[in-house]
Amino acid sequence: MSRKQNKPPQEYMDLLSEYLRESPKNVNGIWNSSSQYWREWLLKKVFSCFQFSGFPETWDLDYFLLTLFLKGYITVCDTAAGVLPLECGYTGINWFNEPTHVQVANPVLGSFQKEIGKDCVLIKLQYSYRGIEPILNRYSELLASCDSSMTVNLMNAKVSEVFFATSKTQADTMKLMYDKISQGEPAVFVREADFNGENVYSFPVKNQFVADQIEELQTLIKRQFFQEIGVNAINSYKRERQSTVEVDAGDEEKLVSVQHWLDNIGHGLDQVNAMFGLNTSVKLREYLTAPAGNNGGEQNEPQ
Description:
Layout: H1 10-20, H2 33-47, E1 50-53, H3 61-71, E2 73-79, E3 82-86, E4 89-91, E5 101-106, E6 110-115, E7 120-124, H4 133-157, E8 161-163, H5 168-182, E9 200-202, H6 205-208, H7 211-229, H8 244-252, H9 256-276, E10 281-284, H10 286-289
Antiparallel strand pairs: 1-10, 2-3, 2-7, 4-5, 5-6, 8-9
Helix pairs in contact: 2-4, 4-7
């Protein structure tokens, strides 16, 4: 066979070229200890939206929440240790493009497969079987970027004056003068030859200080997070020229995401109750569904 006959078809080469082509660089958020802090903070806010009841004592609620909200789904099945919620994978497909089986690989209980609807229930958080990692990463990185900006700005605010000396003796004199001023001495005396106005450069620190504005932006990011998941949060900041239509549109977004999550979790728990004779349930915290104005006209956010 000739080398010409071994040449890949042009369609394949075009596809490969498209896949390997150089793309514009992405602007990625920072991931550090501050990002991790805010990620935990946001996750706890989400968890606090829901109130579960009727869970057996053998169930670990933290394990249930972390698996369901981060992975996006969890199975409940009968095991050698009783009926338990377990992390799993899913496989198979039915006529609605839904999975038919779950595969469990537990370090204590071992590996086994169960059929959904027959000997197990698969509880999903969202229609897509995805967790809330994307929203946690997005807002934790935004909030961490604000922390970083504030830290840099506060450090820069410490620099106020720079002294220029023509000799070591003059520099030592200026250091001594500055030490005395910093210690609060009411009068400091130096030779005119050692100091004049041209020897000092003052940084306009106040003009460069924007940490308070960044803190306000950070508050807005938090409010945007609460609005995106559908929580009635206190609107402590109102944009200038914000119209009534915009305010009403914001009101319509409340409870959108959490209600979707609640519907899916509640449906899954109903199936668990029917299959295993339990009495589990979930509902939103009362302060999330309370109408505006119940608390002096203010609305609450998760604690």
